[in-house]
Amino acid sequence: MGLMRVLHVAPEAYPLAKVGGLADVVGALPKALRPLGVEAHVLLPWHGGLEARRVGEVAFAFFGREERAPLGERVEGGVRFLLLGVEGFDRERVYGYPDDAERYLRFALAAKEVARGYDLVHAHDWTAALLALYAPTVYTIHNLAHQGLVDPAPFFHWTGLPWTLFHMEALEFYGKVNLMKGGIVFARRVTTVSPSYAEEIKTPEFGMGLDGVLRRHAGKLRGILNGLDTEVFDPGKDPYLPAPYTREDPSGKARAKEVFRERTGLRPPVLAYVGRLDYQKGLDLVLKALPRLLEMGFRLYVQGVGDEGLQEAFLRAEEENPEGIRFLPAYDEAMARLAYAGAEAVLVPSRFEPCGLVQMIASRYGTPPVARAVGGLKDTVEDGRTGVLFETYHPEGLLYGVLRLFRLGAEEMGLRAMEKDFSWEGPARAYREVYREALG
């Protein structure tokens, strides 16, 4: 097989638009595929505020009428990004609007026209799942919790697809159309972002109602661990750090700890949480374990935005313990990098975790994770060697994990964690193999 042309279709991609780890994957994987003979481009909605050069127009059918959308192009880090200016995307945020289903269905219908110029579509999450009905597709589930549920009447009016798809249960899910289910059923191959998560989602506990569908289609399901963009996350040349450092010469890490202490006002040992404020991430465990952690002399740094209830709880905790807790309710890349380098440990106590990037980034910066033994956390943290895993979803489980980490030697584990290869090289080879299978 000669050069393979693949179109990644996604709602976000670093560095153009980022909400979470999905953006990091879509931004980094095409670069890693290029040396393997795969020409991969990325197609995104033309979100408000994104600048690009207009290169054409796409005509597509929506609600039985022809619509037209401008097509933009932008090259970043050697990756060609295409932007589709369909109606409804002239806003700053990627998700979180009442008309998200309509917006992303419109985007997918326009995207299928762009896909005609490629051998294969690599569709990401529910927002691009519809493409599996129209083109040879590899479909990646980044998080099974977000499935894209739509009322059937508007769905079939908007897309013009036959109602038989609903009645034969290819799309039906408790009276709704489930876009993710459609992606699983119609894609030639389905991947998810870690081997352990691929096994977990076939069980009722983690399957979010789709475990039966995933068991039926298990033959085409693969778990491929996400990589990390090791050029972006490199303590040896990170512009956000006060001094560079490596495993061989970790002296700059001491300077990062000093600056982190100055900026936060927290004395060590500091435990850090960086990421979305979401109950999926186990933050209720952190809040319940907090009094005991403070009693034992630990300090806590929390950074992130999301659930308002969690935000209020951490603001209140900081007010009550100004010497022991610092909460930054913001997306601040500079402070995030400083926390990865300057904290004594990171907390990743997730209820479930498809892959997780925080534990990989922190490991690369020599800061060991205390993580729950689920999904990608189980696949990336070597228990007792590069971090600590705990099983029980309970505050006592988290406390036990933290105490065990420091008893075994947090600093030594951090240095061992820096040896791990989290690059995209291996995952990219695995994806190329899946692409070849999908194209038969």
TrEMBL record:
Positions of the Glycosyl transferase family domain: 263-406
EC nos: 2.4.1.21
Binding residues annotated for ADP-alpha-D-glucose, in chain numbering: 18
Biochemical pathway: Glycan biosynthesis; glycogen biosynthesis
Catalytic activity of the protein: [(1->4)-alpha-D-glucosyl](n) + ADP-alpha-D-glucose = [(1->4)-alpha-D-glucosyl](n+1) + ADP + H(+)
GO biological process, one term: glycogen biosynthetic process
Pfam families membership: Glyco_transf_5, Glycos_transf_1
TM stretches of this protein: none
Cross-referenced InterPro entries: Glyco_trans_1, GS/SS, Starch_synth_cat_dom
Entry keywords, A to Z: Glycogen biosynthesis, Glycosyltransferase, Transferase
An MF annotation (GO) of this entry: alpha-1,4-glucan glucosyltransferase (ADP-glucose donor) activity
Residue ranges occupied by any Starch synthase catalytic domain in the UniProt entry: 5-215
Glycosyltransferase keyword on record: yes
Record family assignment: Belongs to the glycosyltransferase 1 family. Bacterial/plant glycogen synthase subfamily.
NCBIfam families: glgA
Function noted in UniProt: Synthesizes alpha-1,4-glucan chains using ADP-glucose.
Protein name according to UniProt: Glycogen synthase
